[in-house]
Design brief:
By secondary structure, the protein is an alpha+beta fold. The protein is built from 6 helices and 16 strands.
């Protein structure tokens, strides 16, 4: 496993400082949706400055779900969207992941998982676990791209298999969430070509252009 997120052109630039990330969330009005005062977001960022540039400031998914986060994404000037056949996106919740019990938390050591491209989610999850990593949640993946747009590039996008939908019978829905860039085909519509897209893939399927985003840790 690599410790440094990579793209076709090389390593990604560092995440912005936590103070800048706080300002970004506030500028988008996401703190208001989360019910967190702006000064509390900035104070949290200031207290965690020592965590370094390898750290994402995250809003808890219970406070700001994926359906609210997705429209704030931008790529090629186009807003993000959730595919029409995933209107239950907010029912995809953390599975097997202990989240900090706080409205704000940090996520460290994020990697896009390009080296796992063309693996299925079923194959990738045990590989991540064996490497001491946990998969990103969908809400974390969206917030990562909000703070570091270059993390989402055509043909090198990623899945967020830390979020899954558990059905009433206790089994999991076979859909697994992912972030990629729309081609503007089918139900997406031509106007959405190049827009960032929250979609899904089957648990057992492989895709050459989707890695598996993961983290080394989360903390309050």
């Amino acid at each position: 496993m690599t410790d440094t997120p990579t793209t076709a052109a090389g390593p990604l630039s560092p995440l912005p400082p936590l103070s800048a990330q706080a300002d970004r969330l506030i500028g988008l009005g996401l703190h208001t949706h989360a019910g967190i005062p702006a000064e509390e977001v900035r104070s949290f960022a200031e207290r965690h400055t020592a965590a370094g540039r390898d750290t994402l400031l995250a809003l808890h998914p219970d406070r700001v779900p994926a359906s609210v986060l997705a429209p704030s994404l931008r790529h090629a000037g186009k807003p993000g969207f959730v595919v029409t056949d995933m209107q239950d996106v907010d029912r995809f919740t953390p599975q097997g992941i202990d989240l900090p019990d706080a409205p704000l938390y940090t996520v460290t050591g994020i990697d896009r998982g390009d080296h796992l491209a063309n693996w299925s989610p079923e194959e990738a999850l045990p590989a991540l676990t064996a490497a001491g990593r946990t998969p990103l949640l969908l809400s974390e993946g969206i917030q990562w791209v909000l703070q570091q747009p270059e993390a989402l590039e055509r043909n090198r996008c990623f899945m967020t298999i830390g979020s899954r939908l558990r059905k009433p019978n206790g089994t999991f829905d076979a859909r697994t969430p992912a972030l990629w860039i729309s081609n503007g085909t089918g139900r997406d519509g031509r106007d959405r070509r190049d827009a960032p897209k929250v979609g899904w893939c089957w648990w057992g399927n492989r895709h050459t252009w989707l890695g598996f985003a993961s983290t080394t840790g989360r903390a309050m």
